[in-house]
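Predict structure. Chain length: 295.
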Amino acid sequence: MGVVARVQRYLCHTCGRSFRNPRKPSRRRSALWKAFLQNRTTVSQLAKDYGRSVHWIRKELRAYELPKPVIVPDKIVAIMDCVFFRSSSGYLVVRDAHNRRNVYWSAIESETINEYQCARDTLESQGFSLIAIVIDGRPGVRKLFDDLPVQMCHFHQKAIITRYLTRRPKLEAGKELREIVHDLCNTNEKMFADVVDQWHEKWNEFLKERTVEPITGRWHYTHKRLRSAYRSLKTNLPYLFTYKKYPELHIPNTTNSLDGSFAHLKELVQIHRGIKIDLKRKLVLSILQNRHRKL
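Prediction complete.
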């Protein structure tokens, strides 16, 4: 007889009635979810493709049950970072750096030390053994893992310097410091530390310059942001080259594996903007559970 709403229908020549083979709702919902998630098909487009109403599509998507994630405990190099969709709505995610799969995710309102502690406790209670950590550089978080090799993400370090100095510093000292940080990935700890120390020795008097407020008589350092950029490098230096101290662990020097996943996730949420919060939460969880790879 033909295909109606992507379903083959048949005609009985005896009684003249049309019919179709029974289909399991779970199979249909799985196909809908795959189109919604992997093919990035919007709800309105799905309604047109299936010849159904938008309300019916949303009902089927809500009825789809996410398979329970299968996570096998192992020794892992853990990449830890947070992603936020609003100021008080985000997720803390832990990824196995070698297998590039998320092993932990938790909804959070803010990025706190307690959330990282909870992540570690949960993973270890499940049988995971953390052998190294890659983080974005929050000082308090490093203390939670002082018994493990901790790698500070190079991308985040460069972002910190850019925040203090901008992409195009006006001061010559700022230009030189930014150029030093630009070569962060192409050097080692001793060479980098020597270059930073040489820079500080050259600009030491410049960094000490003060500005006095004429009314209050109070003073502050004239080049506060430049000082902050330098202090950031000195504070994070012990954690910038951990990946070279433990070559056998194959520790990545950035959190890019997670950051790329977060970019994909935010893009998908943007494509499906306007959906209800429960459907958006299911969409996010499906990505975090590695379900975007294969359904």
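Summary: The first helix runs from residue 25 to 37.
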